[in-house]
Design brief:
The complex is a heterodimer of chains A (333) and B (348).
Chain A lengths: L2 H4 L4 E5 H15 L3 E5 L15 H5 L4 E3 L4 H13 L3 E6 L5 H12 L2 H4 L9 E6 L14 H6 L4 E3 L4 H13 L4 E6 L6 E5 L12 E4 L4 E5 L2 H12 L6 E5 L2 E3 L3 H11 L2 E8 L4 H13 L8 E5 L8 H7 L3 H11 L1
Parallel strand pairs in A: 2-3, 2-4, 4-5, 5-7, 6-7, 10-11, 10-13, 13-14
Antiparallel strand pairs in A: 1-8, 6-12, 9-11
Helix pairs in contact in A: 2-8, 4-5, 9-13, 10-11
Chain B lengths: L8 H26 L14 H9 L6 E3 L5 H7 L3 H8 L33 H14 L6 E6 L6 H12 L4 E7 L2 E2 L2 E2 L20 E5 L3 H16 L5 E6 L17 H8 L3 H11 L5 H24 L18 H10 L12
Parallel strand pairs in B: 1-2, 2-3, 3-7, 6-7
Antiparallel strand pairs in B: 4-5
Helix pairs in contact in B: 1-2, 1-3, 1-9, 1-10, 2-3, 2-7, 4-10, 5-6
The chains are: A alpha/beta (333), B alpha/beta (348).
């Protein structure tokens, strides 16, 4: 379904934060086996306030504060998912995945396969990513490539309020482990969000957020909105098509390839570090399947291979943004 | 329903049967590995039979266990079929995990067996998670996390116990202190007399029992289970036992001498339990010999089955990645296969 068609349903304006919260609330109401757990998600309402109010609404059994022990609760969520419940884990900052990686990569990712399909793992992990808040290197990482790369895990990364809600709900309903990567700089962004309780964004379906003829920009998370702004500002000069893949694994290769076959030019904009990552994967698939449609070298916009520095001017220096997307388009248009 | 009730003569007979089955299975697995028939790594449970069987004797059949890399004994104690276990060791399609897990990853979640595990210390968080499901859904079950003495040094173990204690979850942590963490003696890994002392940090009971004595293990676990089911939270049971074989098959064991092994063998858990049953008049030596012969024959059958049954179809390498398969698997499986779909072709 295109983003446009999704929005032909009844909608309400809300922020990305509210959209995720509404998605959580609807799934908590819909399915008794669903519960939310993580550090400060309950009484505190989440350090970035995504779960705010849910503790009061659903109680401490269903919105559970955990000790600060990422490996312990990530493993517990895996075991709980394998035994009949559907935990939704909030990992406060994706950088903390380092602390819980054993349970993610050796248990959660491999159990279904290693057990010959004999365990289902309906676990959802929500976590925050991104620079721009002055939070420095250990609270600003963009690491979704790790998870999208690792067999056995699914990864989604919403760029709009609608997809934030739809992907959250789809992740919770999935019987596979799904990681939802929320860029914390877009929590305050508003958009139209379908109100239908059964609205979900199927895993593996990209959205064409804006149609165009000259250049395809595949953008994720915060860079979706920024690329749409650039596309608007170039209106009349360059016709830019903006695609939000929404789901990184599985990745909707067909929608991206069809667009490149039309435009012949591609910019990939994603905040993760440039080497060996999301950009490379999208580009590889396009080259495998639409090489002869390309009229110009593919351009990448991302974080040069550095960590997020603390000092504000340094952070702005390395953080990819609309200027970088514009420059990339102008290099090839 | 209990797996088997060690308070009854029939239950004790069943416990003995399972211990002998574990020993026969692992002796044969060791032989078949030495002959090059079983690939990978094999970690045998010989000497520790009383711990797995004693624990499972005090569990119901729908309780959960999360195991370790030395998991064959736990599987048999829980009631898994040696035939499909052996097929799994051989990497055959009829194995418990369709040949994709092998010795270190045998699992049957429907039977309450949440998997052997190749990562030291990874089982306890899984048990805490199963206990969370039980507690969340108000089910009348418990979850046991087995761990070795080496795993007591792992951070995630303590996180899991702390979480289970904080939430009063129906979990039991059974520490199998076989005195060696891989090749390093327990004394060099912990500055503790009893590993169960770590339980104090979580304000849960910690007991140390003779792990060569099946009734001592069964009693401690039964008590822990009552506590767990009453909503009073987890217990740590340390069972002092011994690993007769090396860490893995082929281990030359430069870290210990034969006399030490012999000393422990004198307290053999199967021999001592059998002797007690004979003393009580519940068993004769002849009956025991018959039982062992019958079990050894059944293990021979399991080996024969494992040898003769088929390997999985090659396509199985790409199956069971997910419940809902993404298109990537087909896309890249075509690239990987030698029979077509090379790069540059249209393998969409």
């Amino acid at each position: 379904m295109t983003a446009q068609a999704e929005l032909e349903q009844e909608t309400e304006t809300m922020t990305v934060r509210e959209a995720i919260r509404q998605g959580l609330r609807e799934e908590l109401e819909r399915d008794e086996d669903v519960y939310v757990m993580g550090e400060d998600v309950g009484l505190f309402g989440g350090v970035l306030e995504v779960t705010s109010g849910l503790y009061e609404e659903f109680g401490e059994e269903r919105v559970r504060d955990t000790p600060i022990s990422e490996a312990g609760f990530m493993g517990a969520a895996t075991g709980a998912a394998a035994t009949g419940t559907r935990p939704v884990v909030e990992l406060m900052f994706s950088d903390f995945m380092g602390v819980s990686m054993e349970q993610i990569m050796n248990q959660m990712a491999k159990m279904h396969y290693m057990f010959g399909g004999k365990a289902e793992l309906p676990v959802t992990v929500r976590t925050t990513e991104g620079g721009g808040m002055g939070a420095a290197s250990q609270h600003s990482g963009t690491v979704h490539t790790w998870i999208a790369h690792f067999p056995g895990l699914k990864a989604v990364a919403p760029g709009t309020a609608a997809s934030a809600k739809g992907l959250t709900k789809a992740a919770i309903r999935s019987d596979d482990p799904v990681f939802v990567f929320e860029n914390k700089m877009i929590y305050e962004q508003s958009g139209e969000v379908p109100t239908d309780e059964d609205y979900t964004v199927p895993l593996g379906e990209a959205a064409v957020e804006r149609e165009g003829e000259d250049v395809t920009v595949v953008a994720t998370q915060r860079l979706v909105g920024e690329s749409l702004g650039v596309a608007d500002s170039l209106e009349g000069d360059v016709s830019v098509e903006v695609i939000d893949p929404r789901s990184l694994y599985p990745l909707d290769t067909d929608t991206i390839v069809e667009s490149v076959e039309k435009t012949g030019r591609l910019v990939v904009a994603d905040e993760s570090p440039l080497s060996y990552g999301t950009h490379a994967e999208i580009i590889a698939r396009v080259q495998e399947e639409a090489f002869f449609s390309l009229d110009a070298p593919i351009q990448r916009v991302g974080t040069p291979d550095t960590h997020m520095p603390f000092s504000p001017p340094l952070e702005q220096e390395v953080l990819p943004g609309d200027d970088d997307v514009r420059a990339a388009i102008e290099r090839i248009a | 329903m209990a797996n088997f009730d060690i308070e009854t003569a029939d239950g004790r007979r069943e416990a003995l049967r399972r211990m002998v089955t574990i020993r026969a299975f692992d002796e044969e697995a060791g032989n078949r590995f030495a002959d090059g028939e079983i690939p990978g790594f094999v970690h045998l449970y010989i000497g520790e039979e009383a711990v797995g069987v004693g624990t499972c004797a005090s569990l119901d059949s729908d309780d959960y266990i999360a195991s370790t890399h030395r998991g064959h004994g736990h599987c048999i104690a829980k009631g898994l079929d040696p035939k499909y276990m052996m097929a799994e060791l051989y990497g055959k399609a009829e194995g418990y995990c369709n040949g994709k897990g092998g010795s270190m990853h045998i699992a049957d979640v429907d039977a309450g067996m949440l998997g052997a595990n190749g990562i030291v210390g990874a089982g306890p968080p899984m048990a805490t998670g199963a206990a969370l499901s039980i507690d969340y859904q108000d089910r009348d079950q418990v979850a046991v996390g087995f761990l070795g003495d080496g795993a007591v040094a792992q951070g995630q173990v303590h996180e899991a116990i702390n979480l289970a204690s904080t939430w009063d979850l129906p979990a039991i942590f059974v520490v199998e202190n076989n005195h060696y963490g891989e090749g390093t003696p327990v004394e060099k890994q912990h500055n503790l007399e009893n590993l169960s002392d770590t339980a104090q940090a979580y304000d849960i009971p910690g007991v140390t029992v003779d792990g060569m004595d099946i009734t001592a293990v069964a009693e401690a676990v039964a008590e822990a289970r009552e506590r767990a089911r009453a909503g009073d939270g987890p217990t740590m049971v340390e069972a002092q036992t011994y690993r007769y074989r090396g860490h893995y098959e082929g281990d030359e064991e430069p870290y210990r001498d034969d006399e030490e092994v012999e000393r422990w063998r004198e307290q053999d858990p199967i021999e001592s339990f059998k002797d007690r049953l004979i003393e009580r008049g519940e068993l004769t030596q002849e009956e025991f010999d018959d039982l062992r012969a019958e079990i050894e024959a059944s293990i021979d059958d399991a080996v024969e089955y494992a040898q003769e049954t088929d390997y999985p179809e090659l396509s199985a390498a790409y199956e069971d990645m997910f419940v809902e398969q993404p298109p990537e698997l087909e896309r890249f499986a075509n690239v990987a296969r030698t029979d077509g779909g090379a790069n540059g072709g249209d393998h969409r």
